[in-house]
Amino acid sequence: MNKSQPIRMCISCRDRQPQSSLLRLKIADKDITAYDGSGRSFYLCDVCSKNQKKIKGLIKRFKQDEERFFKLLEELMKNG
Ligand SMILES: [Zn+2]
How many domains does the chain have? Predict the structure, then answer.
């Protein structure tokens, strides 16, 4: 592992991990989308991104559409 990599915190469990092992998302207006280089971003760890209960907690917290959010995570995990 590259030790110079920035350490980021998972928004859900607050676990700290190297940035490359986390999913990066952003809040655009009220919707959470994949991070595209600008805007307010946050991170989600591998464990939380596969944990239905945690995801549902985030959906509630950010008032997201459940179906859309699960699809987004699925896409991100496929690509990343
Ligand atoms: Zn986490």
Answer: 1
